[in-house]
Amino acid sequence: MFVLETGFSILITIAAWNAFGSGWGDPDTLGELDWTWLVMLPLNAILAAMAQGFYSWRIWSLTNRRLWLPILIGCVMLTQVMAAFYSGMTIVVRGRSVSQLFGLWPEITVWLSGSATCDLLITASLVYILTRHRRTSQYPHTTGLINKLIRFSVETGSVTSVAALVKCTLWLSCREWNIHYIL
């Protein structure tokens, strides 16, 4: 995952340079997606699936191997990954312009809302499961560790969930300005 994240960071830097560095002064470069975007869409989906898959497995192991919640998270994860891959392939086929993104409004909406839903499910599930385990613990040291895990889950999960919700909201409400790219 570290290697893929590093590759993603390199690709996003190249895309930013092409749009704002070498494309400076040419407004047409802001409307075109360069080659890096064709790799970033599926790579973004793969990275999200890896993280969400790990947390789904973690939830499965914390719920004493009950399957319904990890299967639900996995289905949402696979849906958003497939929507991201489809969007990337369609952009390659139709042309690499920002206007093509608006033609993929349903697919990108499924992708972004699926990602936000998956992150919210993971955060809420971890907090609920850990809180339930904290109530059954009889040892103060274990309760303290579980409290730290709950705090960590709330802090990191809420940041991820809020960012995904804001990105989805910006896509749905401000499409003509592409503000959702900020996140």
TrEMBL record:
Residues spanning the membrane:
35-55, 67-88, 108-130
Q: Indicate yes or no for the key word tRNA processing.
A: no
Task: Give the top-rank taxon of the lineage listed in the UniProt record for this protein.
Answer: Eukaryota
Name of one Pfam family that matches: DUF6534
For whether the record's keyword set contains Repeat, the answer is no
Indicate the segments forming the DUF6534 domain, all copies.
115-166
UniProtKB keywords:
Membrane, Transmembrane, Transmembrane helix
Q: Which PANTHER family match?
A: CHROMOSOME 1, WHOLE GENOME SHOTGUN SEQUENCE (PTHR40465), DUF6534 DOMAIN-CONTAINING PROTEIN (PTHR40465:SF1)
Entry protein name: DUF6534 domain-containing protein
Organism expressing this protein natively: Mycena rosella
Organism placement in taxonomy = Eukaryota, Fungi, Dikarya, Basidiomycota, Agaricomycotina
